[in-house]
């Protein structure tokens, strides 16, 4: 039954993406930029509805009061495609730094350009990176929120952390608060598989880290805060979903945490 629900959800998820992109395109490009963002946010909400109704997976968000007003860096754990779009409804005017190749995708690339996302050539150095930073600063000067995954790419739940120094550079150069976010959607929407699992999980938004720290000290503090909260939430999530199949990384991490407290 879980396999059938997974197939149905995956099919409807992509039909929803393609259908909304086609049907809502005229309104999207006619509306002012920020108002048109509501279409993308409603698409995210519709995916949450599909996930709940078809797979049986629900979630709740804790700590919305920790989100500051104006510009800040939103720094969540990244385990799944779910957390690539899920934060959109929670933020006022989010911004991504993304691979420039994504802007070449027909229609989708135009959607990204409409929202003034910042493309970057990951192999670029020097002037290209300086131009990317200048454009990011310009966008954030209008009060936008930058979504950055501190580990850069998706990581399996419970896997050893691999934080990138880029988040520290952005913290130093942008001089805005950083909002750490922990969650474990990868237990329910795992990477590299089409399976989707029912259950309930929490997204925990932690208190913002204010600007002013040295980059190295900031990164050490961010890792400590996020990993401590992530471990605690991992235990809570597994205990709340006893029938959930656990990947080896989670089994290993839970054993390490148990040994630490023994």
Automatic annotation (TrEMBL):
GO terms for molecular function: acyltransferase activity. The keyword Transmembrane helix applies. Pathway: Lipid metabolism. The chain crosses the membrane at residues 12-31. The keyword rRNA-binding does not apply. Keywords: Acyltransferase, Membrane, Transferase, Transmembrane, Transmembrane helix. InterPro entries: Plipid/glycerol_acylTrfase. Pfam families: Acyltransferase. Residues 72-186 form the Phospholipid/glycerol acyltransferase domain. This is 1-acyl-sn-glycerol-3-phosphate acyltransferase. It comes from Shinella curvata.
């Amino acid at each position: 039954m879980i396999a059938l629900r997974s197939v149905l959800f995956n099919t409807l998820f992509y039909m929803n993406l393609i259908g909304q992109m086609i049907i809502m395109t005229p309104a999207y490009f006619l509306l002012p930029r920020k108002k048109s963002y509501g279409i993308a946010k409603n698409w995210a909400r519709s995916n949450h509805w599909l996930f709940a109704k078809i797979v049986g997976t629900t979630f709740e968000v804790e700590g919305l009061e920790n989100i500051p007003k104006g510009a800040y860096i939103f720094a969540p754990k990244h385990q799944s495609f779910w957390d690539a779009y899920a934060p959109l409804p929670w933020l006022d005017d989010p911004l991504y730094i993304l691979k420039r190749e994504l802007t070449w995708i027909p229609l989708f690339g135009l959607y990204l350009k409409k929202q003034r996302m910042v493309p970057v050539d990951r192999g670029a150095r020097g002037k290209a990176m300086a131009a990317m930073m200048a454009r990011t600063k310009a966008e954030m000067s209008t009060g936008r929120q930058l979504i950055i995954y501190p580990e850069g790419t998706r990581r399996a739940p419970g896997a050893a952390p691999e934080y990138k120094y880029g988040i520290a550079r952005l913290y130093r150069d942008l001089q805005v608060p950083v909002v750490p976010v922990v969650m474990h959607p990868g237990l329910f929407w795992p990477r590299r598989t089409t399976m989707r699992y029912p259950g309930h999980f929490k997204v925990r938004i932690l208190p913002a880290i204010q600007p002013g720290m040295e980059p190295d000290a900031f990164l050490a503090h961010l890792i400590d805060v996020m990993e401590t909260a992530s471990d605690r939430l991992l235990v809570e999530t597994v205990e709340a979903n006893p029938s959930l199949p656990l990947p080896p990384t989670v089994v290993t991490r839970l054993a390490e945490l148990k040994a630490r407290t023994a």
